[in-house]
Amino acid sequence: MKYYFLLIACVLGRLTLQAQENLIINTEGRNSVSLNGTWSYIIDPYDTGFYDYRFNERSEDDLGAYWNKPVLKKKTDWTEHGYNDTYTLEVPGDWNSQDPIFTYYEGAVWYQRTFDKPAIAANEQVYLYFGAVNYEAHVYLNGKKLGMHKGGFTPFNFKIPADLLQDTDNYLVVRVDNRRHKDEVPTVNTDWCNYGGITRDVKLLVMPEYFIKQYHIQLDQQQDIVKAKKKKRFQVSGWVKLNEVMASGKVHVEIPELKVDKEFEVTGDSVKIAFEVKKMQLWDTETPKLYNVSLAVNDEKAITDKIGFRKIEVEGDKILLNGDEVFLRGICIHEEIPQDARRATSKKDAEQIFGYVKDLHANMVRLAHYPHNEYMPRTADSLGILVWTEIPVYWTIDFENDEVLEKATNQLEEMVARDRNRASVIIWSVGNETPRSDARNTFMSTLAKRAKKLDDSRLISAALEVHYNAGTNFVDDPLGAYTDIVSLNEYLGWYGGLPDACRTANWETKYNKPFFISETGAGAKGGFHDEKEMRFSEEYQKWYYEEQIQMFKTRFPENYKGLAPWILIDFRSPKRNNPVYQEGFNRKGLIDENGNKKLAFYELQKYYKEIEEKEK
Ligand code: GCB
């Protein structure tokens, strides 16, 4: 009996973890009904909605379960839960910023709303899609469980069984739990706010019987891009994956602006794509050209995506974009809107953040430390900003645990599935500042290899660390052998020494690969001015940047090919408790929580403008 349960548990576990295989990408291009808006909630710190008074998991039809609608027929009937208009939360959004009761809340919250069945034709099916829920989501419809998902920053969807969908008043309940655990990804210890909730868009997707689930359309990475540019002939290649095996069928690919109109035979549930295009305008940071690409299976309505075509590669210690060397003028970003101390959720939020990035004269962002909402890479695509995107394998993950590796891999797969058609995304990062050990090296190199296998058209990286020493700082982390770029977080002048220590520091890398500073930064409280030696003054932070930049210019090795300082904007972190200067914020932003630029912003901007000028 025990083994039987174990087996079921394993199978269920796998089903959850394989969610990304059924992930429907480019939901913007689909027939959808938004379920964003006002939802009702129950805050449930004791997990009463999930467990009965003996702390056994409630059965599906238990009327005390919070996924079930209380039915009161007569006066003597009673209930101890329910949803109404008094207790509501906006979706998408974190709960922390919506009501003070939630500021530091970590636990279960039940979200509820109703919806009517969308208009669907015979043969059409409805999927329920979540852009992200932090961290664990259990989803119930009309009292039945649709499924569960773990991972706070990646999308997932469930098919709604046709016989479960009522014409009106479908009762949708999501149990969201943002508790931190040692064996999850991220683990218990991070330097950011653990925003809980349904933090990204929710929608119903109305899908035909056969549809294109995922695809990858890109410049063929095998071709010599310099020759292709000369000849003005470009190879495009990729694949399409359908929701199901088809006996026979065709996938139609159209790029009207390039006069591409092609059909490809379906084999099983997938299609290989390859064709040649003449005179294509490649996507780059100056001209981020996007083409409307439409894909259709048989005579179903086509889905359209805006896709840029470019090649990113590393040659020795150079990063090449379309064959031309590029220096990454980057900046790190958390997915947060400072003025409201909340998660960023919308296109408008993405535009606000990228407005600051443009102002800085940066050409690259590191989306730390987890995949940001889809508006971010899409906005970067349209603005010509290069993107590093990362999974939250952060600090002291439980590297010995195979299940944790599986969880991290699952998040990696979901991230790649969602964003592999974004030209802006050039780097998949498998983690940040993970402490060296055999177990960690195996764990991290497995992820790096997996990322390459999922998508060999991008660069793989991870933020490494080196502990400063007065002689030479030698970057020789074994993980560097598996990454295309050797990236380092260094805080010389903040966590060790004073900024003028940069004048004598020496840096070397073991690997003949592009060397990238994935973090460097110092804290300053916006508006606090003093002598430059005064910690947390804007002057200290400016001094730090002056010394760092001078060090990059004069003391860095030849293979130094870019940087992404920490960080664009101050962000909430419960670890930062200096009562005068921090008050729950990490103050290393170049912009404060009110959107004001600090002095250091202009130092970095000056450096970036100089590089830009030189490149002209
Ligand atoms: C780091 C971490 C980043 C922290 C930052 C800091 O190295 O990668 O998540 O927020 O340092 O401010 O200390």
TrEMBL record:
Give every Glycosyl hydrolases family 2 sugar binding domain span: 34-208
What are the residue boundaries of the Glycoside hydrolase family 2 immunoglobulin-like beta-sandwich domain, all occurrences included? 241-310
Chain segments annotated as transmembrane: none
> What are the record keywords, sorted?
Glycosidase, Hydrolase, Signal
Which positions make up the signal peptide? 1-19
Entries under SUPFAM superfamilies matching the protein: (Trans)glycosidases (SSF51445), beta-Galactosidase/glucuronidase domain (SSF49303), Galactose-binding domain-like (SSF49785)
Enumerate the Pfam families for this protein.
Glyco_hydro_2, Glyco_hydro_2_C, Glyco_hydro_2_N
Q: Which family does it belong to?
A: Belongs to the glycosyl hydrolase 2 family.
**Protein name as annotated:** Beta-glucuronidase
Instruction: Name the species this protein comes from.
Output: Neptunitalea lumnitzerae
Q: Give the source lineage, highest ranks first.
A: Bacteria, Pseudomonadati, Bacteroidota, Flavobacteriia, Flavobacteriales
